[in-house]
User: Fold this.
Amino acid sequence: MKKHNVVMISVLGTVGGLLLAIGMCMCLLPEWNAFTPGVILGAIGAVTLLSIWPISRRASGKGPVHLTGGYVAAALLGLAGAVALGIGLVHCLGTVTAFGLAVGIAGLVLLAAAVLVGRRAAGRKAVAVNGRRLLAYVVGIAGALILGVGMCLTMVWGSGWMIPGIVVGAVGLLVCVLNVTLRLPGARRA
Assistant:
């Protein structure tokens, strides 16, 4: 991949991620009173992030994706899973509710099913589970949860928790980034 393609993909990823994050903050912080503009800004960020996929395929010399029923099913499952996870998170903002937990867990299950259906549509084998990969998943989930706690501290539980929330979130982000080192050296990505 050429350097200008890498730069373009990096810029799109950064801008899209920031727009999505700011849109989420606008939706989740009631004192901002900006739910509708937050949805619009978040959707623009999500579309920007989604545009990276065809650009990176073209830059790496791959042809366009031939949409099959499997790809469409994977995309719909992923979309339904993301929406369900978001609804579950919104219902658990103030206090954790059984409905919020159930919908959030259903969203995670749908997202996992989307990955499996997408792999099958691409003609790939199922993910082989070994100890190192399982550890990587556990550490990644732990890092994401720690990052989420940091976000809750800063966004939900008041301004007195801003600095501790940033520290906890940074630790969670560091755990997620360091999780990359759990990959086997020289292992082929599936």
Helices lie at 3-28, 35-50, 52-59, 69-91, 98-121, 131-155, 162-178. The radius of gyration is 18 Å. The first helix runs from residue 3 to 28.
